[in-house]
Amino acid sequence: MMNDWKQDQLQVRDRIRKGDYTGPTAGLLNGQTQANLVVLPKELAFDFMLFCQRNPKPCPLLEVLDPGSAEPVLTAPKKDLRTDLPKYFIYRHGEKSEEVTDLSSNWTGDLVSFLLGCSFTFESFFLQRDIPVRHIEEGVNVPMYATSLECHSAGRFEGNMVVSMRPIPEEKLTEAIQVTSRFPAVHGAPIHIGSPEKIGITDLDKPDFGDPVTINDGEIPVFWACGVTPQLVIMKLKPEFVITHAPGHMFITDKKDTDYFLL
Amino acid sequence: MMNDWKQDQLQVRDRIRKGDYTGPTAGLLNGQTQANLVVLPKELAFDFMLFCQRNPKPCPLLEVLDPGSAEPVLTAPKKDLRTDLPKYFIYRHGEKSEEVTDLSSNWTGDLVSFLLGCSFTFESFFLQRDIPVRHIEEGVNVPMYATSLECHSAGRFEGNMVVSMRPIPEEKLTEAIQVTSRFPAVHGAPIHIGSPEKIGITDLDKPDFGDPVTINDGEIPVFWACGVTPQLVIMKLKPEFVITHAPGHMFITDKKDTDYFLL
């Protein structure tokens, strides 16, 4: 007989669909790939896909859906992006206007959905290999920083890269680089190691998003491109209508994290 | 002092631009990445980019240009796709209508250019590592076959995968797989090894495109996704206007083949 925890895990996606679970997805269905969601009107979709194509490290595309479609046929057939995330943010003219748990009443045939890779995937490999993930140890959000690194622009989409930071012990640095190099679909190898000022970060204790974490002696700050980048780039345009997942409330695909391990 | 051959090599791109060299590009500027060109009206560009995103093995995107732009700012800044390929084919309503060496008079602000990776890149690594490339040894075109493998469709773009075949000695098979696995930007790892009938190929001596090659005892036919796939998928739609490079007459970028070696 299954214990309650396992039972809960198996049913969590049903519960999300019914609106019965509206919490964050970290730790749910471990080993199954979670994704960021961005939904844009078709008019902006070509340039946004171009932006992702030119900036695969901050914007790793797992799947782009047909205009109007809510079924991710490649990563989660039969699932529905309108109901199968626990919480969504709706933005109008660049301002957050609503937090909802079901998009059905806001959906139109004109919307294009983008699923982007998320660092949860490589963090689960870090944990398996005893590479510390400090923000998980400390029970906070990963620290994220705006940088001086410019993305390649595409149409009206332009902006600087946002990075996440994880302090890595020197003796684990090689392994952390190796593991993330094998995951190009979830941000890939670090974009910078060490001196934060070289990429325009002035104070590691004051992240622009998320929370500061402890950096111990013998640890080096390592920076990875972050999925907040495309969100900021989109919001700069103040588009009439955009939907994203609520932070931490991701889409759980049918893919396994190991499916994205590039052999 | 440079010998004539080296001098020729350095000047070949100037000569191509001037229309003074209109031949194939195989072997030119060795080590510098060559690319397939597809130019489509904007109306088809979103769905085609989606098709490439969903089928990265046959359609590895090196760069997608802004609508109307002919300058590949990421892979060859200051170059011009209208003049810097030795020969182009223009198709109207799915039929080849012209062969030209300069696109200037056919260019409009509505055209979107796609540069796709080409197997020349990994073949040059094969030669460096003594993995035989039979069609080069025999001085013919690589044999290509239509298969029963369906691509993921995108909008009106759909069709089966075309593959290229290289016979690999059993003792070199591991290395051939390793090398191409490291090159996801130029078709990546093989999509099939061995029995051709399993992917719908009935006779290796009768390729659908290119020329048959000798398969020696102790060699295994190895199949890679091929860049002819997107061309066929496009032509099925009989679009009003399409431009491609003439076969073998590729765009020479500023990138080195090693830039696409995924570490």
Q: How would you describe the overall organization of this protein?
A:
The structure is a homodimer of 263-residue chains. By secondary structure, chain A is an alpha+beta fold. Chain A has 2 domains: 32-119 and 234-260, PSTPO5379-like; 121-230, PSTPO5379-like fold (2-Layer Sandwich), CATH 3.30.2040.10. Chain A is 22% helix and 26% strand. Chain A has 6 helices and 11 strands. The first copy, chain A, has helices spanning 4-18, 42-54, 120-128, 134-137, 173-181, 228-236; strands at 32-41, 61-64, 88-92, 95-100, 111-117, 144-150, 160-169, 192-193, 219-225, 242-245, 251-256. In chain A, the strands form 2 sheets. In chain A, strands 1, 2, 3, 4, 5, 10 and 11 form a 7-stranded antiparallel β-sheet that branches. A 4-stranded antiparallel β-sheet of chain A has the order 6-7-9-8. The longest helix of chain A is centred in the first third of the chain and has 15 residues, at 4-18. The interface between A and B is medium-sized, with 21 and 21 residues.
Keywords:
homodimer; 263 residues; alpha+beta; PSTPO5379-like; PSTPO5379-like fold; 2 domains; seven-stranded antiparallel beta sheet; 6 helices; 11 strands; 22% helix
The major sheet of chain A is characterized as: 7 strands, antiparallel
CATH topology of the largest domain in chain A: PSTPO5379-like
Tell me the count of domains of chain A. Answer: 2
Q: Report helical residue fraction of chain A.
A: 10-25%
Biggest chain pair contact, residues each?
Answer: A-B, 21 and 21 residues
Residue runs with pLDDT of under 50 for 5 or more positions of chain A: none
Derived structural class of chain A? alpha+beta
Strand content of chain A: 25-35%
Order of helices and strands of chain A: HEHEEEEHHEEHEEHEE
Number of strands of chain A: 11
CATH class of the largest domain in chain A, please? Alpha Beta
